[in-house]
Amino acid sequence: MMRKARTNESGFTLLELLVVMSIVAILMMIAVPRFTGAIRSAREAVLKEDLAVIRSAIDSYTMDKQKGPGTLEDLVTEGYLRAIPIDPMTQSNSTWSTEQADALHSLDQTDPGIDDVHSGSDEQGSDGQPYNSW
Hints:
Elements: H1 2-7, H2 14-65, H3 72-77, E1 97-100, E2 114-118
Antiparallel strand pairs: 1-2
């Protein structure tokens, strides 16, 4: 009678639990690198878009005002940008690296100013180039 009671008990054996845990571990080993790669690709896409928007705003400011902006904040105060975007690589909007132009871009331009902008991150992109050279 004791033997019958034990055979009717339900539950998982240690072997079944180990098999399930190993399957979960294998799936995690596959999923985690893909997930981090997808996050990196998304950040790079956001960086490219932000750079294009800021550069377009710099060009518009320069053509309209006949001088380059002194700082990125000038683009916000003059209404060319709503806010300075957050650099997706450094998670800050104060780390953008700007290049000052020494030359004038048009005959009507009176003062040089910011000519280009780059990310403040020194990390390498998926193309092998550092983000601060994009």
